[in-house]
Design a protein that fits this description.
There is one protein chain. This protein is α/β, with parallel strands linked by helices. It is 53% helix and 14% strand. The chain has 9 helices and 7 strands, in the order ααααβββαβαβαβαβα. The strands form 2 sheets. The chain has a 5-stranded parallel beta sheet. A two-stranded antiparallel sheet has the order 2-3. Helix 2 runs antiparallel to helix 3, helix 4 packs parallel to helix 9 and helix 7 packs across helix 8. The protein is elongated.
Length: 252
């Protein structure tokens, strides 16, 4: 198991909702012992923000600006691109209905679906990128390649299976591709992750055409989405994670 992955996971849990806002609420309760009004205000503010981020409007406040940074890919712009790079997005471990094999997570599977669509449209070779930061036996790249080949009937040219995070996805993938003269890629990941991923690959020396998928801001909300739901809180937390990552990349 990667030490850097563990550290990043712990830091993210502390900085992002819901845990960060729960801690803030508890801090407010602690403050009430000496400053009752201030402590109460802090706790109420934390609960209000937690509630807001659990709704569609609150999630869109942090999601929509990220997704607007990269528009859907236009197949007419594919000229000059030499390869498709699709990034891993986690796994479902030991799926019993698939004889205990690991599977791509839901978000990773959607990325693979779009990469397969683009490969059929363009005929470009695919590189899949993802290691095993959680200590699993099989890399995410190996799982992704198996699914693309068996389920989508799409060839995979390269596997980058050493990376533990997006920056390493970029660095190790660039090394593989530059060795065979590839400098211009079509990058596939979800729309929330695209801006940070694009920055990382550009820093690694590649020319990137973004091909984002999973645009949450295009979802047609129902009445229930205006009430607090765990799904919207998860999406808010993901978007805030990406905002923090963008800031980090820009200062390093």
């Amino acid at each position: 198991m990667s030490t850097s992955w563990i550290i990043n996971t712990v830091i993210s849990a502390l900085l992002l909702p819901p845990f960060s806002l729960i801690l803030l609420c508890l801090f407010g309760l602690y403050l009430r012992r000496r400053w009752p009004r201030c402590g109460l205000a802090v706790s109420i503010a934390a609960l209000l923000v937690l509630t807001l981020l659990s709704t569609y409007p609150g999630a869109m406040f942090v999601v929509r600006p990220l997704e607007k940074m990269n528009q859907p890919f236009n197949i007419a712009d594919v000229g000059g691109v030499q390869a498709i790079v699709v990034l891993g997005g986690g796994r479902l471990s030991s799926a019993p209905e698939f004889n205990g094999h690991d599977l791509p997570s839901a978000i990773a599977l959607q990325r693979l679906h779009y990469a397969a669509f683009l490969q059929r449209q363009t005929g470009l070779p695919i590189l899949v990128s993802g290691g095993q930061p959680d200590g699993s036996v099989a890399s995410e790249a190996a799982i992704m390649a198996r699914v693309l080949r068996q389920d989508f009937v799409v060839p995979v040219q390269w596997l980058e299976s050493q990376s533990n995070n997006t920056a390493e996805n970029a660095r190790y993938s660039a090394t593989l591709l530059q060795q065979v003269g590839i400098e211009r890629i079509l990058l596939v990941t979800d729309a929330l992750h695209m801006q940070r991923a694009k920055t990382a690959f550009q820093k690694a020396g590649l020319t990137v055409l973004p091909a984002p998928t999973i645009f949450l801001s295009s979802v047609r909300p129902t009445i229930a989405d205006y009430l607090p739901r765990s799904a919207w809180l998860q999406r808010s937390s993901y978007a805030l994670h990406e905002w923090l990552g963008i800031v980090w990349y820009n200062v390093h």
